[in-house]
Amino acid sequence: MAIKWTILGLAIYATMGLYLVAAVLFLARVRRVGYAVYGVGCAMAVAAWVYRWLETGHVPLQNLFEVFLTLGMLVLPVTLFCRRFLGVGGEAADAVIGIVILFAAGFVFNAEPKMLVPALQSSLFVPHVAAYMLAYAIMAKAAVPAFWGLVGFGPPREDGLVDWESATYRMVSLGFPLLTLGLVLGAVWGKIAWGDYWNWDPKELASLASWLVFLAYLHVRYMYGKRFPRLNCALVVLGAVAIVLTLLWVNLARIFGGGLHSYA
C-alpha cells in the first residue's frame, strides 16, 4: 500500500474524507447537510476523473485504477436515482461503498498513466465498460440490503421507502439489463477483435458467472416471490462476490494462465 502524493491522489483522498463525513451525517439523520457534503465529494471525484482523462488522453476505463476511480464517481448518481425512482434509501451505506472503492484506487492500484493499447482502441470500448460500471455500482448497492436480510437484521425502514427485500429486487432488476448489455457488447467486440463471440477467457467466464447468479436470483424471485427471502439474499450477495472476483481477475489471472484480457 502506497500513498499517492499527486494531484489525482490527493483528490481521491479528499473525496474519501467527504464521503466519510456524509456517511456520518446520514447516520445522524442530518440529511440535507449530508447530501451537500456527499455532492461536494462526488464533484471532487468527477474532477479527478476528468483530470485523469486529460492526463492520459483517453476515457479513464482502461485499468483497475481507472475502473475504481470511475466506480467511486458513480455512487452518488446511483444513490439519487434509486431514491427518486425506486424508493430505495441507504445513503450512508452508499457513501461507505464509495470510500471502500476509492481506497482501492487511492492505495492499492498503480496510477501511472498509460497509453490506450491497440486492443482497446474501438468504438465499443466505452459503451462496453460503461455498461458494466453502472451495473456494478447498482449491484453493489443492492448487495447491502441483501446482506442485512441474510443475517436477519438491519436498519429500520424509512418512511416513504420500500422494505429491504423490495429494494434488493428493484435494484437488481435495474442492474441486470446493464449487466446483460455489457456481456453482449463484449461478445460483439470479441467477434470483431478475435474472430469469435466467445473465447472461454477467464474474464469472460467470471463475467458470465456473475450474470448467471443474478439470473438465478431473478428466476427464483419470479417463481416464488418472497417465500424464500434468505435464498434470494444469498444469491444477490453471491453475485456481488462474483463481481468482485471479475473486477480483480488481473490479480488472479496467474491461476488461469493469463488470458485475452491481460492488457488491462
Explained architecture:
The protein has about 260 residues and is mainly α. It has two domains: about 1-115; about 115-264, no CATH class. It is about 75% helix and about 0% strand. It is built from nine helices and no strands. The protein has helices at about 5-25, 30-55, 65-85, 90-110, 125-150, 165-195, 200-225, 230-245, 250-255. Helix 3 crosses helix 5 (about 125-150). The model has no long low-confidence stretch (mean pLDDT about 90).
Record keyword descriptors for this entry.
flat; 2 domains; 0% strand; 264 residues; mainly alpha
Could you give a short description of this structure?
The protein is an all-alpha fold. Helix content is 74%, strand content 0%. It folds into 2 domains: 1-114; 117-264, no CATH class.
Write the layout of secondary structure elements.
Layout: H1 7-27, H2 31-56, H3 64-86, H4 91-108, H5 125-151, H6 164-194, H7 202-224, H8 229-247, H9 249-256
Number of discrete helical segments: 9
How many individual β-strands?
0
For the termini, the CA-CA separation is 20 Å
Largest sheet: none
Helix content percent band: over 70%
Radius of gyration: 19 Å
SSE string, helices as H and strands as E: HHHHHHHHH
Q: Which class of secondary structure composition applies to the elements?
A: mainly alpha
Give the overall average pLDDT: 91
Which regions contain 5 or more consecutive residues with pLDDT less than 50? Answer: none
Gross morphology:
flat
SS strand fraction: under 5%
Number of domains: 2
